Structures are given as C-alpha cells and as structure tokens.
Amino acid sequence: MAERDPLALEQQLCFALYTASRALTARYRPLLDDLGLTYPQYLVMLALFDRGPLTVKDLGQALQLDSGTLSPLLKRMEAAELLRRTRNAADERSVVVELTDAGEALRPRVREIPRTVFRELDTPLSDLIDLHSRLTTFLGKLD
C-alpha cells in the first residue's frame, strides 16, 4: 500500500472543515433567500432568538465576529427593519441589539430551516449530534 502524502490537499483537516462548512452553508442559501437573509444574518437572528437583546459586543462574541464585520451586517438588518440598535441607557458607549416585531415574526420560518436541511442530508440524527459534539470539543481545544 502506497504511503499517503501528508501535504496532499485531501489529507488536510483544515480543508475538509472548510469545504464542509461551505457545502453546508450552500444548503442553507435557498431557504434563507426565501426569507431575504444571508447566512451571517441568519446567525444574528438565531443568537437574538436564543439570547434576547444583546449588546453589539456580546453579539460579536457569541458569533465570533469582530465589530468591523458585524456593524455593517447589523446596519443592513436594521434597514430591513428586522432589528433595532439603541444606546444602552446604563452605558452610553454600549449599543443594544434587539429584534423588531418583523424580525420576531420570522421565528417560526427560521425554526424550520435546520430541520429541512438535515432532512435532506439523510444522515441519522445521532451521527449529527455526535459530529456537533466532536466539533465543539475540537473548537474548545483551538481556543
């Protein structure tokens, strides 16, 4: 049996994770297009559904996005009337992000997206739960 080249692209864990992430995100795209959301906007919605109003700083930490990436994203979502940004009354330097009624109204449709995507993958739920657990553990080691 021939020895595998450790530098071969197909042998790189980083490449497997990168291509898997891109492929999975592509599966979300048509469903998100129907809602007028990009994938990063979808993640913002999930964070706000889950955690309620958040400061921009806390939202950035939750999504692992810097303010330079997050601010224009939030600005576009605010223009689409999905969320509002307001100065924190307790700390004027801090901005709080919360869903509007229109943003909140998307919750039932957003809830169906993961179910639809994973149903199409035809993979046992136990395998997906195991994969998530392993990736979460792996990410913890990277941090």
TrEMBL record:
GO terms for cellular component: cytoplasm. Keywords: Cytoplasm, DNA-binding, Transcription, Transcription regulation. One of its GO terms (biological process) is response to stress. Its main location: cytoplasm. GO terms for molecular function: DNA binding; DNA-binding transcription factor activity. InterPro entries: HTH_MarR-typ, MarR/SlyA-like, Transc_reg_Sar_Rot_HTH, WH-like_DNA-bd_sf, WH_DNA-bd_sf. Pfam families: Staph_reg_Sar_Rot. SMART domains: HTH_MARR. Residues 10-143 form the HTH marR-type domain. It is found in: Cytoplasm. This is DNA-binding transcriptional regulator, MarR family.
